[in-house]
Amino acid sequence: MAMSYRDLGEGQGDPLVLLHAFPLNGRMFEPQMAAFSVDRRVVAPDYPGFGRSPRTPAQPDVRYYAEAVRGLLDRLGLERVVLGGVSMGGYVAFECMRLFPERVSALVLANTRPDPDSEEARETRKEMARRVATEGIGALAEIQMERLLAPATRENDEELVERVRAMILENSPDGAVAALGAMRERPDSTPLLTEIEVPTLVVGGEEDSISSPEVMSRMAEKIPNSRHVSLPRAGHLSSLEAPEGFNVALKELLEGLR
Predict the structure, then answer these.
(1) Between 18 and which of 29, 99, 105, 152 could a Cys-Cys bridge form, CB atoms 3.0 to 4.6 Å apart?
(2) At CA 159, angle to CA 154 and CA 164, rounded to 5?
């Protein structure tokens, strides 16, 4: 399950590995790669079936994506990393913490949630998968934009809207359908929260309707060594919509590791 990835920078600190949101790819972390590769190695993979990665051969579960991350760490010789995940990336990061917590020195959980899908959310994902299978990946660009971006972003930042649309269209329909199935069946990670022992940044957008500030705050309260940051005028893609604020919060986490 080889994954393509972006790899930039070098330095003494543990490398930063960033896991992307659905239905984007690793290119969404360009603002973070530019900011942090100055003195640290930053790696941003594409999940199987996303970006430049070959698609998954069957219906994977979330563990499959976490195993792919572990395979990439092995391939790159990375013993310990700062692991960050946005949205679906958070679901994969939780699974990484189950499988190989000893290789994670700090954690970033952005615009994500620990609980499994509700019945309504499961049905929504099934319907979304049906539309992608019949209409192609372009259906997701239509469906997801309102869910991903804050109203002000959609109204005032046409360039970012088009960047997000372009990233969605770079992914394969098969990859998107597989990821929807994996997210739909993901386990409850709430019991894991109290067991996370590394410094953790919980960061999201004030206008995120999927992982609301209340959801993020409750999650942070359960993680022993965590800090919660809520970014104004940002929706579900806070690392793209509010990159300056996101990067300030991430920089504080990284500086605290020295």
Answers:
(1) 29
(2) 70
The distance of Cα 175 from the centroid of its chain, to the nearest Å, equals 15
Q: Of 67, 84, 91, 105, whose CA–CA distance to 26 is shortest?
A: 84
Here the CATH number for the domain that contains residue 34 is 3.40.50.1820
Q: How many domains does the chain have?
A: 1
d(CA 26, CA 175): 14
Distances (CA, A) of 170 to 32, 126, 225, 244: 20, 21, 37, 26
Q: Is the pTM of this model over 0.90?
A: yes
CB-CB contact of 222 with 228 (8 Å): no
- Burial class of residue 247, CB neighbours in 10 A (0-12, 13-18, 19+): middle
Question: What token pair was written down for 194?
Answer: 């109290």
pLDDT in tens, 184-222: 999 999 999 999 999 999 999 999 999 999 999 999 999
